[in-house]
Design brief:
Blueprint lengths: L1 H14 L12 H16 L29 H19 L2 H6 L2 H24 L1 H6 L6 H17 L4 H28 L7
């Protein structure tokens, strides 16, 4: 529990560190942090997934929502923000603290928080546009996907194999979000400008 409090405290401290940023500008730093998060997730590997074949599950990642060519800019920002927030939520639990190396977990959560913070101005800027966009909310598919992950962990009693498969799944889904970020840059050249 003390670890959870220190992680939450660190997130609060970090959240006040960039309060002055205005406008929507996903810098290359956003991509660097994304890649660092994938490296950290890879370093968190504790057991071989081949030992967990009986625990395998298709979490049904909603690939259509990260397909940059189909997503409108507003939806892409919302989906990316939701994916990062839901990933944080999975790893910001007592069970997660017990399962993973705390140093790596802290680095991952800090990186995820920084990415969320980078996206907030974009999200706020596009709120009006999102409300008027026709069609259903693409973040619902992301929420259902992560709900399935959390239910799976609970059903498997947060076993080592369950955590390993979830770690692997989240690595894959975050890798898929690369196309979403690239699509944002193509649709709005100033988003990726250094």
């Amino acid at each position: 529990m003390a670890l959870m409090l220190s992680l939450l405290s660190a997130l609060v401290v970090f959240s006040h560190g960039h309060g002055g940023s205005l406008g929507c500008n996903l810098t290359l730093n956003h991509d660097v942090i994304s890649n660092e998060n994938l490296v950290i997730l890879d370093q968190m590997k504790r057991i071989s997934p081949s030992l967990c074949l009986d625990d395998r599950k298709d979490f049904r990642f909603p690939q259509q929502v990260v397909n940059g060519s189909q997503s409108q800019r507003t939806q892409a920002i919302s989906v990316l923000y939701e994916m990062l927030g839901q990933t944080s939520r999975v790893f910001l639990t007592e069970q997660s603290s017990a399962a993973w190396n705390t140093t790596l977990l802290h680095k991952l959560l800090t990186g995820l928080h920084q990415q969320l913070e980078d996206l907030e101005p974009c999200l706020e800027q596009d709120v009006g546009q999102a409300e008027s966009a026709a069609g259903k909310d693409p973040t619902l598919a992301v929420k259902r996907y992560f709900m399935g992950i959390r239910l799976y962990l609970k059903h498997k009693k947060y076993s080592d194999c369950a955590w390993e498969l979830v770690r692997e799944e989240i690595m894959s889904s975050l890798s898929s979000s690369t196309s979403l970020r690239e699509g944002l840059r193509e649709k709005d050249g100033d988003l990726g400008s250094p």
